[in-house]
From TrEMBL:
One GO BP: proteolysis
Family: Belongs to the peptidase A1 family.
Family matches, as PANTHER family: ASPARTYL PROTEASES, EUKARYOTIC ASPARTYL PROTEASE FAMILY PROTEIN
GO molecular function, one term: aspartic-type endopeptidase activity
UniProt keywords, alphabetically: Aspartyl protease, Hydrolase, Membrane, Protease, Repeat, Signal, Transmembrane, Transmembrane helix
Protein name listed in UniProt: Aspartic proteinase Asp1
Active site (UniProt): 99, 299
């Protein structure tokens, strides 16, 4: 179902917590009644004696500070951006794939580990710090109706499954997350995350080489929401992904520019918790394509951008009609992505190829005069063969239905801000190679 290519990518992080929609296609978070009698009994025994350690930390009484993390990674060839977080007492470093499309953060966990995938660090070791079922964060992940047999003092199990069919099964734990703020202060608050002792990756997929996922959605289980509820930051998260690789992630609103940002309201549908900008019309080269009302989601957990079948086919047709065939031809032997082109000679950089393509525009229908401009750099991928490929893929072919995702490729060299306080998303061109002071 997925494009089989050397380009590592994910479309794995659209999260609908507590509600199964398109099961196996969407990312869903749900709690199991029983994993199986044997494993349930075994792990219950492992964690039943856990008590919650309270690390020393002091609650700040004022907002106005942020936490800034440098990022490592790129769209091509790595296919993801990762952050290093320290967890535990004493703190140990872990590499996490940043994901605004899901809430729950999880690490591979030696509880012991039933099935762990290759990772840069040894699995996290829990130490009597299991989260009980009565904890509000556990309750936020499910409704009593879909988990009726648990008592308040039972451990809180979780399973998270992503759109690429990767999954993590484990138990919620609470441990110290040491962070340093831009104002110079440091804390190590106890935060809840998943201790994943059973990970699955389909044979056709190449999982990111990380220790887990950093969930940056707006649900109660996200690290951002937890830090906000403890009074340390405002419930704001953002990222700046560099087209040259790297960039930065920030929690809190202290580094958000005071001007120049294009803001659009977050559109919520029923219990959906992902970052949706609502419906948009698609323009190519400033001209209407006839594609209207595309529901748009921003997701840093997706490498590429995905349009539904009709929008994808219309866009591809528009691009091909615009191409000067004397300058570009199909690169049929380049299997990096489904659609690639080559010039009369190999392109030395992406800039050399972008002059043959026109910009795209998403014009949001529920936000007057709000547009997201996608230059050719925001939808083209340079390959090792000196060609360029279309970094917008057919989401209908990978089970996304009518969902349209703006992934990493289309957010490069922009600061993107997810403001859960004011329920709005903003973006502004930025130098993502320089950490904000």
């Amino acid at each position: 179902m997925f494009p089989k290519s050397p380009v590592q990518h994910r479309i794995n992080h659209i999260c609908l917590i507590g509600k199964s929609i398109m099961r196996g296609k969407w990312e869903v978070v749900r709690l199991w009644v029983l994993y199986c009698l044997l494993l349930s009994g075994f792990f219950q025994g492992v964690f039943s004696a856990f008590n919650l350690p309270r690390p020393p930390w002091k609650k700040q009484s004022n907002f106005g500070s942020s936490v800034v993390f440098p990022l490592v990674g790129n769209v091509y060839p790595k296919g993801y951006y990762q952050v290093t977080l320290n967890v535990g007492q004493p703190p140990k470093p872990y590499f996490l794939d940043i994901d605004t499309g899901s809430d729950l953060t999880w690490l591979q966990c030696d509880a012991p580990c039933v099935k762990c995938i290759p990772a840069p660090h040894s699995p996290y070791k829990p130490n009597k710090n299991v989260v009980k079922h009565k904890d509000p964060i556990c309750a936020s992940l499910h409704s009593p109706a879909n988990h009726p047999r648990h008592t308040p003092d039972d451990q809180c199990d979780y399973e998270v499954e992503y759109a690429d069919h990767c999954s993590s099964l484990g138990v919620l734990v609470r441990d110290a997350f040491p962070v340093k703020f831009t104002n110079g202060s440091s804390i190590a608050p106890p935060l809840v995350f998943g201790c994943g002792y059973d990970q699955e990756v389909p044979a056709s997929e190449h999982a990111p080489y990380t220790d887990g996922i950093l969930g940056l959605g707006n649900g109660k289980s996200s690290i951002v929401s937890q830090l906000s509820s403890l009074g340390f930051i405002r419930n704001v998260v953002g990222h700046c992904l560099s087209g040259q690789g790297g960039g930065f992630l920030f929690l809190g609103d202290d580094v958000v520019p005071s001007s120049g940002i294009v803001w659009s309201p977050i559109v919520r549908e029923s219990s959906e918790k992902h970052y949706s900008l609502g419906p948009a019309d698609l323009l190519f080269g400033g001209q209407a394509t006839g594609i209207k009302g595309l529901p748009i989601i921003l997701d840093s957990g997706s490498t590429f951008t995905y349009f539904n079948s009709d929008a994808y086919k219309t866009l591809l047709s528009s691009i091909k009609k615009n191409i000067d065939t004397k300058q570009l031809i199909d690169a049929v032997n380049d299997k990096s992505l489904p659609v690639c082109w080559k010039g009369s000679k190999p392109f030395k950089s992406l800039i050399d190829a972008t002059r043959y393509f026109k910009p795209l525009t998403l014009s949001f229908t529920k936000a007057k005069n709000i547009q997201l401009q996608l230059t050719p750099e925001a939808y083209l991928i340079p390959t090792g063969k000196g060609n360029v490929c279309l970094g917008i893929l057919n989401g209908s072919e990978v089970g996304l239905g009518d969902v349209n995702i703006i992934g990493d490729i289309s957010m490069l060299d922009k600061m993107v801000i997810y403001d859960n306080e004011k329920q709005q998303i903003g973006w502004v061109p930025a130098n993502c190679n320089k950490l904000p002071s």
